[in-house]
Write a structure and sequence with these properties.
Layout (H helix, E strand, L loop, with lengths): L3 E3 L19 H10 L4 E5 L6 E5 H18 L5 H7 L13 E3 L1
Antiparallel strand pairs: 1-4, 2-3
Length: 102
């Protein structure tokens, strides 16, 4: 899998999708569903906040919003899509041709 991003701005997209991976892969959905049955979960809230306990439904709702944004922001869904267009591809955010894959 590969993470595509633009060096000229902050645009990036989720890893390329395949039959083995999408943000809605059944194991991911099942895991989030299982978390709903918990009262709280530990999550890293970032610099300055560290690991905190939050309500599991809040964690799941944040994850679903994040997954929704990943789906919405996908310009090239598969690696094949990217390879087909990479010579003429421009960043959907800034219009540059300054991509990198990690």
């Amino acid at each position: 899998m590969a993470y595509l991003h633009c060096h000229s701005c902050d645009w990036s997209q989720d890893e390329f999708w395949s039959k083995d991976y999408t943000p809605l892969k059944s194991s991911i959905v099942s895991w989030l569903g299982d978390l709903l049955l918990e009262d709280t979960v530990s999550t890293d809230e970032g610099p300055g906040k560290g690991v905190v306990e939050i309500e599991s439904r809040m964690y799941v709702s944040r994850a679903l919003v994040r997954i929704g944004m990943e789906i919405r922001n996908m310009k090239w869904k598969t690696e094949e899509d990217w390879l087909r267009e990479r010579e003429t591809a421009v960043c959907p955010n800034c219009g540059a041709q300054d991509f990198d894959i990690d």
